[in-house]
Amino acid sequence: MKKIVIAIDGYSACGKSTTAKAVATVLGYTYIDTGAMYRAITLYFHQNHVSLTNKKDVEKALENIDITFHKNEKTGLAETFLNGLNVEGEIRKMYVSENVSQVSCLTEVRRAMVAQQRKLGKKKGVVMDGRDIGTVVFPDAELKVFMEADIYVRAGRRQEELLENGQLVDLSEIIENLKKRDHIDSTRAESPLRKADDALVLDTTFLTLEEQVDEVINQALSKI
Ligand code: C5P
């Protein structure tokens, strides 16, 4: 069967990664969480006090960053490693969410990550989710999906996820963070978040996870 690239973009907390993971499992594809890559860089910058306004510092830091994904044998899911250390839990914390959009605006950061993402998807058979996958990373992706959902639904889902990871965060704080990230992500100069002209729009406000996954799989099967 022909292998394709599935690009899933959209606003924060619309269910992109949950859908992408499930689609990848069903199709036997590799799932690549590009948001996790920007989060890992943000964590490194935070831990090493890298100044975002100092281009040289940023470039030097990027040379020392190695991001990889490894499968957790128990859950079967890929986890993010930063310089050999598992940071999957740490990168989901609120302090990382609060700073990631400022880091992902930087030209040097985007250049490095886009190059790595293209390498990871070169052989196809990937489901990649993010903000610029269908527009910049893989503009020729065979299937592009743009996900959106009501802000309150998104915030509620994110709150549940955080709670599952032991973090109790106010709904208003989450809404504030999602709005701020959406704004920065869609207004930045470098590869802003926008729907690719040929992307399928999937509003997940009233959809169950199963329905979201089915929709993407049906679309994918029509291209394979
Ligand atoms: O997908 P997630 O919410 O984990 O992404 C975290 C942040 O990483 C986004 O708010 C955005 O600033 C950045 N990002 C990006 N480009 C991508 C994926 C994520 O700029 N392809």
Automatic annotation (TrEMBL):
GO terms for molecular function: kinase activity. It is found in: Cytoplasm. Residues 6-220 form the Cytidylate kinase domain. Keywords: ATP-binding, Cytoplasm, Kinase, Nucleotide-binding, Transferase. Pfam families: Cytidylate_kin. InterPro entries: Cytidylate_kin (IPR003136), Cytidylate_kinase_dom (IPR011994), P-loop_NTPase (IPR027417). Belongs to the cytidylate kinase family. Type 1 subfamily. This is Cytidylate kinase. The gene is cmk.
